[in-house]
């Protein structure tokens, strides 16, 4: 089974899945391996690997080849640039920053990456992703020259998300930015989910089980946490459980 089908199957099973984002630029290779194995043990459904700054293909290869044999959950690249591809991953989020003001981040980097995927990385499964930056935006908002959607403008987020669905993206990601002071608001998630049927990923600034559960209940099909795993790994078990419980509750209500 491919990675996209696995994610869809897990979403159907548990209502909402948890994905862990690790940035190789923020941890050592040893920490990376320990954290990856820890989140797998606690039930995180996939490992995303990436960052907006400072990762080379050589570093990715080093970190990922070290975990390749011991991880059962899929490793999905979450590239900050065309240099962030590695043959040791299972899939890549082929992402377009839909609300960037610079066409390079909407389609320019993607045409460069497409050539690499065909010529050098045939084993990577591309999963197309509409990446929509909200609120704080964080480093990714700055680097990709995004015009972040204000936290309270559900109508604009909805317009982008529905556009992404019509354009045929596999998945849609509402991103407040890594380390955001405030995550995407549940009301925005719920309004987008009412109209859009594509899997909805939500991340950025989620630091506790309560917020993770609230967003899963509101309609997020996948919750991504990154910073908290690096800073307070003791919380991650409860966050993963909260996502799955929130998802199951929403599934039962539907
Ligand atoms: C960033 O949404 C992810 O791309 C994760 O954000 O680091 O704030 O958990 P955090």
From TrEMBL:
Gene3D superfamilies: FMN-linked oxidoreductases. One of its GO terms (cellular component) is cytoplasm. It is an enzyme of class 2 (transferase). It holds the Pfam family PcrB. Keywords: Cytoplasm, Lipid biosynthesis, Lipid metabolism, Magnesium, Metal-binding, Phospholipid biosynthesis, Phospholipid metabolism, Transferase. Pathway: Membrane lipid metabolism; glycerophospholipid metabolism. Sn-glycerol 1-phosphate binds at residues 173-179, 204-205, 226-227. GO terms for molecular function: imidazoleglycerol-phosphate synthase activity; magnesium ion binding; phosphoglycerol geranylgeranyltransferase activity. GO terms for biological process: glycerophospholipid biosynthetic process. Its cofactor is Mg(2+). Its EC number is 2.5.1.41. The keyword Lipid biosynthesis applies. It is found in: Cytoplasm. The keyword Lipid biosynthesis applies. InterPro entries: GGGP/HepGP_synthase_sf, GGGP_HepGP_synthase, GGGP_synth, IGPS_HisA/HisF. Mg(2+) binds at residues 23, 52. It catalyses: sn-glycerol 1-phosphate + (2E,6E,10E)-geranylgeranyl diphosphate = sn-3-O-(geranylgeranyl)glycerol 1-phosphate + diphosphate. SUPFAM superfamilies: FMN-linked oxidoreductases. Belongs to the GGGP/HepGP synthase family. Group II subfamily. HAMAP family: GGGP_HepGP_synthase (MF_00112). Prenyltransferase that catalyzes the transfer of the geranylgeranyl moiety of geranylgeranyl diphosphate (GGPP) to the C3 hydroxyl of sn-glycerol-1-phosphate (G1P). This reaction is the first ether-bond-formation step in the biosynthesis of archaeal membrane lipids. This is Geranylgeranylglyceryl phosphate synthase. It comes from Vulcanisaeta distributa (strain DSM 14429 / JCM 11212 / NBRC 100878 / IC-017). The lineage of its organism: Archaea, Thermoproteota, Thermoprotei, Thermoproteales, Thermoproteaceae.
